[in-house]
Automatic annotation (TrEMBL):
Origin: domain of life: Eukaryota
Residue ranges of domain Ion transport in the record: 182-416
Any single GO CC term annotated in Swiss-Prot or TrEMBL for this entry: voltage-gated potassium channel complex
Keyword Coiled coil belongs to the record: yes
Coiled-coil regions listed: 415-452
GO MF annotation, one: voltage-gated potassium channel activity
Gene for this chain: Kcnf1
The protein, known as: Voltage-gated potassium channel regulatory subunit KCNF1
Compartments in which it is found: Cell membrane
Annotated function: Regulatory alpha-subunit of the voltage-gated potassium (Kv) channel which, when coassembled with KCNB1 or KCNB2, can modulate their expression and their gating kinetics by acting on deactivation upon repolarization and inactivation during maintained depolarization. Accelerates inactivation but has relatively little effect on deactivation. Coexpression with KCNB1 or KCNB2 markedly slows inactivation.
Amino acid sequence: IKMAGDSRFPDVDSDGSEKSEEMEIVVNVGGVRQVFYGDNLNQYPETRLAELVNCLSGGYDSIFSLCDDYDPGKREFYFDRDPDAFKCIIDVYYFGEIHMKKGICPICFKNEMEFWKVDLKFLDDCCKAHLSEKKEELEEIARRVQLILDDLGVDASESRWKRCQKCIWKFLEKPESSYPARVIAVLSFLFILISSVVMCVGTIPDLQVVDAEGNRMEHPTLDSIETACIGWFTMEYVLRLISSPNKLHFALSFMNIVDVLAILPFYVSLTLTHLGAKLMELSNVQQAVQALRIMRIARIFKLARHSSGLQTLTYALKRSFKELGLLLMYLAVGIFVFSALGYTMEQSHPETLFKSIPQSFWWAIITMTTVGYGDIYPKTTLGKLNAAISFLCGVIAIALPIHPIINNFVRYYNKQRVLETAAKHELELMELNSAEGKATGSRNELEDLSREGKEGPFYSSRIKVSHSDTFIHLLSEEKHYRTRLQSCK
């Protein structure tokens, strides 16, 4: 503290209060010295720096409750904190808002703001979005770790049926849990491929047979393979439904609805074939069976359950609805404009192929997408010029939204890999911390995690002893600030 009075403590007026407006507070944060004036700090009296203005009258106990060290000779307050984050935080005293610098961990920055007692409302919206994204990632890591702990934990108080349910669920839903589970996942994948191939091969006329009434039908061998595949799918779905912890959520899940759509047509067509003839004409039964057989193409979507690439693609498309909407809007406007122009320009030709504007839509679609089947084409000079402009505009309209869609795919794919690696690393840390503990320690940690999960994704106190540079500090209640800040530099 630089003052004109006593060398150790600032001057005090007649009322016993400090002349805080005229004070110069010298703060040394991680080796970086900063000088502040009391009038600036007192704008936010609840912050830690503002409390330094009035702490000297309370003696050394008051001083060391706010800082790590104090040098009366140099009159400086010392803090073992991150200087880069501190430079951002002090902006609140001059500009009324805070921005995070690039390269600073958002969670560590949040902890720094809590230490300096600066409210998060001063953080700008752009930085709040970054912080929210990081929180979601850490919550996802905590969720994955908890799921793994659920699989590893064995509760002796559970009934034998409950334990059996968990084993079946892990066996069918988590191929990485054991070698037999991987074998089952591979078999399921092969059954999906075989069923899809049989569905396609069954439509080849040379492989079909003719029944007594002269109608073509699938070969009995292919029909037997189809029946075996459906039997596998049915058994798999029933076992997963019985062992699922939340059956309502299981039944309403998108992938499980796809499973039902892949299985149901077989049984409905079988019912119609044997019983439907008594209720309706045979021709109507055959038409209904053929329509249901088309629904078998839904089973190809079952591959998404075993392919992380398809899941990533689905998520990327889901996050790219705005870009896809822009793409469709560009194409729709172009199709309408160029089809109308093409119809108008081609009317002067006696052999025109543009009979109406709605019919010209097909020409505009295949031209703007550069497919060009050639079944409809312009014959006049102006029509050809319109066609050239239309496919050039189509290339531009399609190319513009593609880059954001690719970025969404790459970002989500990389994010999933990082989350998987982080979850494995957290489990390794937990194993190291519990290596000297008893066998029941893992279950106790799981119970602590479950209790604290109601308020947030926090780990139990036994897991927080790690000082790894990649330790997930959001999941810890204790404040190992310096160690974690060093990892973010």
